[in-house]
């Protein structure tokens, strides 16, 4: 049996990450459902190991020691994105949508616990099939999986992946049809219907695009990237002390909580005082790279055989969770967001990131605007909440549930 050390494992993960991008580019169905490339690459390895297990063969063993720091780096970048100034960009609607998403994350866990108990499964199984993998997605599911395993949930990493992947598919299938039904049933006036009424052609979509950051050449870009990397490491280092201190108090916390909180503190200090001159773009690039490598390495070492016998509970729980999300979209969300065309498009994005990922949200909203016309408010509010704000509040929700039910 071949054993790979941490660097070799990471290199192998990088190769399969690139393979995942190549496969997604050549298989339209994968692009249509916004399946993340790291998931595709990592699953290739996991499925190959599952096939080898049928012949009692283990061809390779991975040392995933670098998985933890990669995961912490990603969530630290999420912390750096939790800027209070962002709440002022979309104003009241961002605050309302974030509050609604956070409340729904709590409901997802309550529903999951009730259904898991009905199937004779541990209550925490309902949490991992609730906001951990639905509002959180694959990254949050795999990040929290060790805590659920320690709490007695059998095969937590495999359950997290299966539920997150199924959620991505459900979000892609449900989001656009739900918004279309709301638009047509409530006779919401779309930009194209207004243009036709005025005898004019539809205007192109006007999606807000962040202003380009001026730089003084490659050296300035390199320095901005280096500074962002150093501050992420600094937040991770200080955060490790904070997480250790909170753990000593008896709280069960994911290892990234301290670093994420430190990242948020540094970002907001920089926003208000301008001490550090951080580059949000560089932080995003580093965070996304860490996320991709974390996902592919975590999935390569996944034990899919742990899912045997759990297919029915997973499908039932996900089906009920999907109904709950659609119900929230049809009433409180639509009403709070203005009961107009933008609100309906925002509802489709809400389905996307509360069952799948922000990529799902953007994909389904784009399919609607291609048909009905631009929805600039929806494209401003939904991605801000879905991309990182809900990850921040959801981590707190999950932590509370773990500590109550452990």
From TrEMBL:
**One term of GO molecular function:** glutamate:sodium symporter activity
**One GO biological process from the UniProt record?**
L-glutamate transmembrane transport
Naming one, the record's GO cellular component terms include: plasma membrane
Q: Which UniProt keywords apply?
A: Amino-acid transport, Cell inner membrane, Cell membrane, Ion transport, Membrane, Sodium, Sodium transport, Symport, Transmembrane, Transmembrane helix, Transport
The membrane-topology field of this record reads: Multi-pass membrane protein
Question: Subcellular location, in the record's words?
Answer: Cell inner membrane
What Pfam families does this protein's entry cite?
A: Glt_symporter
Give me the segments passing through the membrane: 6-23, 35-56, 68-87, 94-119, 125-148, 160-183, 231-264, 285-305, 311-334, 346-368, 380-405
The superkingdom of the source organism is Bacteria
- Major location (coarse): membrane
Which function does this protein serve? Catalyzes the sodium-dependent transport of glutamate.
Q: Which family does it belong to?
A: Belongs to the glutamate:Na(+) symporter (ESS) (TC 2.A.27) family.
Q: Which HAMAP family match?
A: GltS
Record protein name field: Sodium/glutamate symporter
Lineage, broadest ranks: Bacteria, Pseudomonadati, Pseudomonadota, Gammaproteobacteria, Lysobacterales
Gene symbol here is gltS
